[in-house]
Amino acid sequence: MNRLLLIRYGEIALKGGNRPFFEKRLLRNIQDSLWGLRPFEVTFRRGRYYVKISDDNLFAAQQRLQKVFGVVSISPVFEAELNIEDIYSEAYKLLEANYTPGMSFKVNTRRSNKNFPNTSPEVNSNTGAYLLDRGLDLKVDVHNPNIVINIDIREKGAYLYSQTIPGPGGMPVGVTGKGLLLLSGGIDSPVAGWMASKRGIEMEALHFHSPPFTGEGAINKVMDLCKVLSAYSGNITLHLAPFTEIQKQIRQNCPEPMLITLMRRIMFRVAERLALQRKISALFTGESLGQVASQTLENLVAINDVTSIPILRPLISFDKEEIINISRKINAFDISIRPFEDCCTLFVPRHPVTRPTIEELQKAEEKIPVEELVKDCLENIETRTIKSRE
Ligand code: ATP
Ligand code: MG
């Protein structure tokens, strides 16, 4: 049997002239999310999406749709033709599917199709009476029912549902532009990426690694994190940038307390150039103000100093606890805490500077061939695609 899922969206209804653009993109993202669950049919009518799908795939579809940004809620529905008898019989099916002896119910009708002959209160009481007459152990409770049978009478049919499952909210991925996520193997940056996607950003990821000090394990970890993110954002292009030579040069030639800040300044130079090449308009990071010595305001300023592209930091005011909660919720946490070396943890100075002046950093950088290192790193980037379907 074919079943129907009703999908509601929220914020994008507000976007005025851009509305069709948002709606089309959300339609595409919904279709993409259902890969492998064919046959299905997605339609859009009057501000709602309807997915027609086989009974067997209903639950899987529901779970996938809970990861499509822009979706506010999902209801499995029974569809009735526009006559009262068919509404009765679909209401009975819905009740039966949720039936336990002694349960209470209430019927709640909304009639946006004013051509339908019965008023909402009539449909409520007639359907209620019909259900009570079916010989089940049932009672009506309008204040605190075990189940509400919602009947939505629209132009093309009536939709009956009792369950409303929350979606992730946000904006459809792809409507607000492209971002480059600086993705480490830690807890924060995947969460930052997820939050950017939630606001509609289509994401590419850039990871710096230091072979042979960081091995395949570190790369697999980052690929697994991209895989988790791709369930929300679609395929992710992952750029792997070699960082070993840069770290060696900095370590040999620059004052130890500045290592992390200097490394960051080179990372962001590389990231900016890559973003330009890929027509990406902003960088995203997992930085959070004051979380560690390298994330003081002065250090963030020192990083911004070498780039002109906007650097967006979705986690800037989040506590670690709040970040971890999201990380668990999106199933990234167990991957993030796998013990693999990150390129930045290899050369951690004992006393990192918290207040470097730009002049001091520039002076330190005179000791290394910055431009050559950036160019070399860029030229040796290896790019992979992490697919959401597989
Ligand atoms: P995370 O959990 O994201 O690693 P963190 O608290 O460990 O964050 P840092 O290691 O100081 O913080 O990194 C700050 C940010 O710099 C990261 O959130 C990430 O955006 C970027 N970053 C750090 N290391 C790398 C790396 N190896 N490759 C790409 N980006 C990185
Ligand atoms: Mg880190």
Short description:
With 390 residues, this protein is α/β, with parallel strands linked by helices. It is built from 14 helices and 15 strands.
Describe the structure using short key phrases.
binds adenosine-5'-triphosphate, nine-stranded mixed beta sheet, VC0802-like, 2 domains, elongated, Rossmann fold, six-stranded mixed beta sheet, alpha/beta, binds magnesium ion, 390 residues
Write the layout of secondary structure elements.
Layout: E1 2-9, H1 19-33, E2 40-45, E3 48-54, H2 58-65, E4 71-80, H3 84-97, E5 103-111, H4 120-132, E6 138-140, E7 147-153, E8 158-161, E9 165-166, E10 178-182, H5 188-198, E11 202-209, H6 216-233, E12 236-242, H7 244-253, H8 259-277, E13 282-284, H9 297-304, E14 311-312, H10 320-329, H11 333-336, H12 343-346, H13 358-365, H14 370-379, E15 382-386
Bound molecules: adenosine-5'-triphosphate (ATP) and magnesium ion.
Magnesium ion is lined by residues 184, 186, 342, 344.
Strand fraction equals 15-25%
Q: Averaged pLDDT, please?
A: 93
Radius of gyration: 27 Å
The largest sheet, given as strand count, sense and whether it forms a barrel, is: 9 strands, mixed
Number of strands: 15
CATH superfamily of the largest domain: HUPs
How would you describe this structure to a colleague?
The chain has 390 residues and is an alpha/beta fold. The protein folds into two domains: 2-166, 2-Layer Sandwich (VC0802-like); 178-386, HUPs (Rossmann fold). The chain contains 14 helices and 15 strands. The chain has helices at 19-33, 58-65, 84-97, 120-132, 188-198, 216-233, 244-253, 259-277, 297-304, 320-329, 333-336, 343-346, 358-365, 370-379, and strands spanning 2-9, 40-45, 48-54, 71-80, 103-111, 138-140, 147-153, 158-161, 165-166, 178-182, 202-209, 236-242, 282-284, 311-312, 382-386. The strands form two sheets. Strands 1, 2, 3, 4, 5, 6, 7, 8 and 9 form a nine-stranded mixed sheet that branches. A hairpin with a 2-residue loop joins strand 2 (40-45) and strand 3 (48-54). Helix 3 packs across helix 4, helix 7 (244-253) packs antiparallel against helix 8 and helix 8 (259-277) crosses helix 9 (297-304). The radius of gyration is 27 Å and the shape is elongated. The mean pLDDT is 93. Magnesium ion (MG) is lined by residues 184, 186, 342, 344. Magnesium ion (MG) binds at residues 184, 186, 342, 344.
